[in-house]
Amino acid sequence: MKRTLILVLAVVLTFSVVLMSCKKEGAEAKPVKIGALVPLTGALSEFGKGFRLAGDLAAEQLAEAGFPIEIKYADTETSAIPGVEAARTLADVEKVVAIIGAAASGVSIPVAESVSIPKQVPQISNASTSPLISYLPADQGKDFLFRTAPSDALQGIVLGQIAADEGYKAAAVFFINNPYGQGLLDEFTKSFEAKGGKVVASTPHDEKPAPTYVTELRQLMQSNPDVMLALGYPGQATVYLKEFFEAGYNKTTALLFCDGTKSVEMPKALGAENLAGFMGTAAGSVSGASLTVFQEDYKAKYGDLPPLPYMDTFYDGIVIAALAAAAAQYAGKPVNGVNVRDMLREVANPPGEVVIAGVDGLKMALEQLKDGKDINYEGVAGSQDFDENGDVVTPIDIWQYVVNDPYIETVRSIELRQ
To answer: Which of 37, 172, 224, 342 is the most exposed place for a label (fewest CB within 10 A)?
Structure first.
């Protein structure tokens, strides 16, 4: 009887161990949740679909490489209040371990202040370029705010150079009234005026698109500028540029654009011939293995890569967050916001084995992490080496509108350091 009891207990114990092991393996296989704040509606809605496609490609490749993730997308509506509420849902309800986005600096900053920093969830913006993000007071000593796009401290310099090189002497700036618009205006003004130019007028407009901007345009044009910088988003620029052309201001005033007005929809709405030849700036990508793989993989899955900004940096943000989560998991740590934050620089910065985008590159990255080795992810947009402020440096592209589809071509790239 005793022997039978011992045998039964042994069987029960063995079964319990197997069951616990199965549960553990199931827990490890459960996809890690990563949040994504994208502008599916609002003034930046043209860009939101591209971000989702890039994110879905990253998730598919990570799963094939052996580390499944689940991206929880939320629409910011390109506005602060909806963006904050969306971020709160991602953090509190979905329990994401990182948030990629938002696109607009005017959304990313209040999200950081109200949600990601106090809730200790790392936030990696793929497109918010306001210089304020580098030194946001709420993040001092916290280190939860990162970005895979460069600061406008760089883009503003290049915008000023273009304006000067084109021979413009007097610039008017129509800018969106948020940290992105104000920050880029400040940097452009310093750069342009250091080269002998003068910002003769600057007028803000609201984040919410208005039905008309006739009054604001009239005010700007009274300063007799030879160039107007359209510093904002397509949702507003499509409206006021139509009025710009209808009023005949283009007869005496040229146009200059930025990353926010690098649009393939605006030429369709305004007439590509009206915009052709005018230049602008945007964050660029460093030519390399990661960029080549991304372009080839994107084309195989979706078709030609559109010439829109920050799809590459969105992909990089998803991949870096996932690799940081994997590094924490393989190190035996809980996969939570704090541990993911602590691993971001470990997987993206040197030293370590260089790994790249794509299934093969991600497989190599995961194998290295499983073996306890360091990696250095070289991103699609370039070396995503986060500095002490969570910033990176990528090239700044100079691009121009052209008549034929896809309506945008890159003229050249400039590499600067902050």
So the answer is: 224
Measured distance CA(73)–CA(56) in Å, rounded: 10
303 CB-near residues (< 8 Å, 6+ apart) = none
Fold of 152-283+396-414: Rossmann fold (3.40.50)
Residue 13 confidence (pLDDT) above 60: no
- Give the separation between CA 418 and CA 407, rounded to whole angstroms: 31
pLDDT band at residue 343 under the 50/70/90 scheme: very high
Question: Does the pLDDT at position 12 exceed 80?
Answer: no
Query: Comparing C-alpha atoms, which of 120, 78, 81, 132 is closest to residue 101?
Result: 78
Residue 27 has pLDDT above 70, yes or no: no
Longest pairwise C-alpha distance within the chain: 104
Contact 158, 130 (CB under 8 A): no
Task: Tell me the Cα Rg of the chain.
Answer: 24
Same fold, 31-151+288-377 and 152-283+396-414: yes
Average pLDDT over residues 168-189: 97
- Each domain of the chain, given as residue ranges in start order, spans 31-151+288-377, 152-283+396-414
How do strand 32-38 and strand 99-100 relate by DSSP bridges?
Answer: parallel
* 31-151+288-377 under CATH 3.40.50.2300, yes or no: yes
